[in-house]
Design a protein that fits this description.
Layout: E1 5-9, H1 16-29, E2 34-38, H2 44-55, H3 60-84, E3 88-92, H4 95-105, H5 110-120, E4 128-133, H6 136-146, H7 157-173, E5 178-182, H8 187-201
Parallel strand pairs: 1-3, 1-4, 2-3, 4-5
Helix pairs in contact: 1-8, 2-3, 3-5, 4-7
The structure holds adenosine-5'-diphosphate and thymidine-5'-diphosphate.
Length: 202
């Protein structure tokens, strides 16, 4: 039996990484084999690309192409084979992040993004996308308190406003797979909602 593919999305500081561990444990407790991974990254080559993407300045289209190069490798090495084995795959970001950041944030046309998506994964979409949604100020405060910022995290507030708007537009476009999680609440309240959502997917 094919496993399920769950993606975690949201602007930086929204709380994605915080909840991946909870979802992993919840599903493992229900007897699933779970693989948690991330983009850009998730494979040895993808992690090298991540390092370049998070620290080097480059042309917008180079950035988009490298995101999809990392994704192509991730699908080939991890996502597709793990799903085929019946395992559940959790990814901290996937193609919705490219729409949010490279199209919404930086302005690459949606047509180009759709062409890359159709090339790299014509038949694969997440079974569930959890969009952790918070106002920018909340995300900024959480980030400032938690870590040294990378290239994306140092962007201006307007950049993240455009990313967030594109995420919400995608959620409205694909209501069947998106769940928008109000991430201003406590971690415990969010995890109670996540448990309900996951129960329905099992
Ligand atoms: N619901 C929440 N309430 C308060 N703090 C939170 C909440 N969710 C996450 N945080 C904190 O905010 C910071 C950023 O969270 P993180 O999960 O790393 O975000 P992301 O992976 O989306 O960038 C961390 O210090 C985390 O502990
Ligand atoms: C997958 C992906 C990520 N990104 C960006 C968003 C994030 O700022 C950055 C790294 O993502 P992330 O792993 O969420 O960073 P962190 O571990 O610091 O929370 O890459 C894109 O711009 N496009 C993409 O397609």
């Amino acid at each position: 039996m094919q496993g399920k593919f769950i993606t975690f999305e949201g602007i930086d500081g929204a709380g994605k990484s915080t909840h991946i561990g909870f979802v992993t444990d919840f599903l493992a407790g229900r007897g699933k084999t779970v693989v948690a991974s991330r983009e850009p990254g998730g494979t040895p080559l993808g992690e090298k690309l991540r390092d370049v993407l998070l620290h080097e300045t480059m042309h917008l289209e180079t950035e988009a192409l490298l995101m999809f190069a990392s994704r192509r490798e991730h699908i080939a090495q991890v996502i597709a084979p793990q799903l085929a084995m019946g395992h559940w795959v959790l990814s901290d970001r996937f193609t919705d992040a490219s729409f949010a950041y490279q199209s919404g944030g930086r302005g690459l046309s949606r047509e180009k993004m759709e062409a890359l998506e159709a090339w790299v994964h014509p038949a694969l979409q997440p079974d569930l996308t959890l969009l952790f949604d918070v106002p920018l100020e909340v995300a900024r405060e959480r980030l400032a308190a938690s870590r040294t910022l990378d290239k994306f995290e140092r962007e201006q507030a307007e950049f993240f406003a455009r990313c967030r708007a594109e995420y919400l537009r995608r959620a409205a476009q694909f209501p069947g797979r998106f769940v928008v999680v109000d991430s201003t609440r406590s971690i415990e309240a969010i995890q109670r909602e996540l448990a309900d959502v996951l129960e329905r997917l099992l």
